[in-house]
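Duplicate of #3305? Posting structure anyway:
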C-alpha cells in the first residue's frame, strides 16, 4: 500500500473508531459486537448508497480496543487539561470520543508523529463541528501530547 492510500485508510479508521466509540457509549455495545458490526457492515461497505471508505482494520481495532481498555487513564489525562469547572461529562458525546481516540493514539502509538495525530483528529472534528470546537480539539490534544510524549 502506498503512503497516500495508507494515510487515507488510517483517516477512515480514525473516523470509524470515533463513530464506534460513540455507538458504544450510546448503546453499551460490547467491543467484540462493535468490531463485528463495523468489520461486516461499515468498513469499506456501501449502505443505503453511502460508501464507507476502506479503513485499515487492524488500526481501527487498536483504536477501539485501546480506548476501551485504557478509558480511565485516558479520561484522567483529558480531564486534567479541561478548564476549571469543566468535566469530561460536560462535553458532548462525539467530542468525548474524538478526544479519547486522539489521546489513546498519543499514548500508545509512538509510531505516529504528534503533529499527524493532532491534525487527523482536528479533521475528524470537522465532520461534526465548526471552527471553535476544532480549535479546542487542537489545543487539548497538543496539551496532552506535551505530557505523554517528551
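Output from current build:
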Amino acid at each position: 500500500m502506498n503512503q497516500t492510500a495508507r494515510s487515507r485508510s488510517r483517516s477512515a479508521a480514525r473516523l470509524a473508531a470515533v463513530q464506534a466509540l460513540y455507538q458504544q457509549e450510546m448503546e453499551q455495545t460490547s467491543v467484540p459486537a462493535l468490531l463485528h458490526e463495523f468489520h461486516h457492515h461499515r468498513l469499506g461497505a456501501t449502505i443505503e448508497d453511502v460508501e464507507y471508505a476502506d479503513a485499515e482494520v487492524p488500526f481501527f481495532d487498536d483504536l477501539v480496543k485501546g480506548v476501551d481498555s485504557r478509558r480511565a487513564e485516558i479520561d484522567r489525562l483529558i480531564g486534567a487539561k479541561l478548564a476549571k469547572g469543566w468535566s469530561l461529562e460536560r462535553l458532548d458525546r462525539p467530542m468525548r470520543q474524538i478526544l479519547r481516540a486522539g489521546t489513546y493514539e498519543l499514548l500508545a502509538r509512538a509510531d505516529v508523529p504528534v503533529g499527524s495525530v493532532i491534525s487527523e483528529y482536528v479533521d475528524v472534528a470537522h465532520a461534526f463541528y465548526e471552527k471553535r470546537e476544532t480549535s479546542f480539539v487542537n489545543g487539548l490534544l497538543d496539551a496532552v501530547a506535551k505530557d505523554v510524549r517528551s
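Confirmed duplicate; merging threads. The two ends are 30 Å apart (CA to CA). The beta strands are 46-47, 50-51.
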